[in-house]
Amino acid sequence: MSEAMIVDISLANVQEMLVQNSNTHPVALVFWSAQNEQSRLIVTIFEKLAEEFAGKLIVGKVNTDIEKEICEKLGNPQAPFVKMIKMGDIADEKALLQSEETYRTWVEGFLENDPSEELRMQAKAAFHNGAFDEAVELLGEAAKINVNNFRIHLDLVQMYLQTGHLDKGQDLFEKLPDEAKKSPQGKELSGLMHFSEILAGAPDIEQIQQKLAEDQNDIQALMHLAGYLMLHGHAEKSLQALLKAFMVDREFNEGAARKALLQAFDMLGAKAPELVTQYRRKFQSLMY
């Protein structure tokens, strides 16, 4: 497999990166500062993307505290900031910290088309239209074209979960390589399976809410509520319920609230980094 291409940009190599290397690969120039927390987050995100798109994308890190001459020549961008360089020109740029998913979609727009990705998109569209069998067949064709595209298998895991086949989804997920499991999509699916297990055997949401109306510290009901909220796209409210459950009894069910919080932070890190940072701090303040 190709290795990630991550380079610290300096006066010694900036010309090579901007002119020569950008003729063969898009170069994401990431402007960051050690004094800025969001800058450190953007570096982490693009290092992950460099791993994910190894062999296709170059990530160049520009430390704005040190490389002032480079920054001046490139318009003194305020970190965090990214410029996409292609064929020696600035193709696009993004200011301020965005979500990992936003950056991923942005980067993909500068990469060469992968035929397996086109079939994968067709499969997702078919699934959205209720054609599960057709979607599975398209994913199978995509896997034949590119056996290393683990997103194909992750999509199938997600389809299993969304059609109520938790066991099949878990079985397939366990067989995937660590690279797939540790990808943003893999972490999200791992989290969804975790919260599906929390909700397994739970009463419906009306009964959960009734239990909490009778006893707001009913920890089992709080865990069920957190699972329901996470699976229905209400991440922050789910985190709030988990924090409350942790405060009520951090040892409940072998530390279930703590484990669920850590799982949530992992699954939400790509899409909602600021939310994760906010609630991780709240969690840490309760730990000590």
UniProtKB/TrEMBL annotation:
SUPFAM superfamilies associated with the record: Thioredoxin-like, TPR-like
Taxonomy of the source species: Bacteria, Pseudomonadati, Pseudomonadota, Gammaproteobacteria, Thiotrichales
The name this protein goes by in its record: Tetratricopeptide repeat protein
Source organism, top-level taxon: Bacteria
Record organism: Thiomicrorhabdus sediminis
Pfam families: TPR_19, TPR_20
Database matches in InterPro entries: Thioredoxin-like_sf, TPR-like_helical_dom_sf
